[in-house]
Design brief:
Large ribosomal subunit protein bL31B, alpha+beta, ribonucleoprotein, Ribosomal_bL28/bL31-like_sf, ribosomal protein
């Protein structure tokens, strides 16, 4: 494997400002900004708009779509196919 063509893979802190949540992981993402983490080591930090702490699916605030209404509208428009 060529060492010069692959991006560097190392520890990075991802910070979700909307939820005031951050987590340390490994990534190829880079940033000029840094943050001192809980272990006292300085890591690059990448600000993200959404994470598991603020995503509607994970927080339980997701809306349920009216799929029954959509199906009925589709069947009215195109008719119902009979099973073979």
């Amino acid at each position: 494997m060529k060492h010069t063509i692959h991006p560097s893979y190392g520890p990075v802190v991802f910070r979700d400002r909307a939820a005031n949540h951050a987590f340390l992981t490994r990534s190829t993402a880079t940033s000029d900004k840094t943050v001192v983490w809980e272990d006292g080591v300085t890591y690059p930090v990448v600000d993200v708009e959404i994470s598991d702490a603020s995503h509607p699916f994970h927080t339980g605030t997701a809306r349920v779509l009216d799929t029954a209404g959509r199906l009925e509208r589709f069947e009215r428009r195109y008719g119902r196919r009979e099973a073979r």
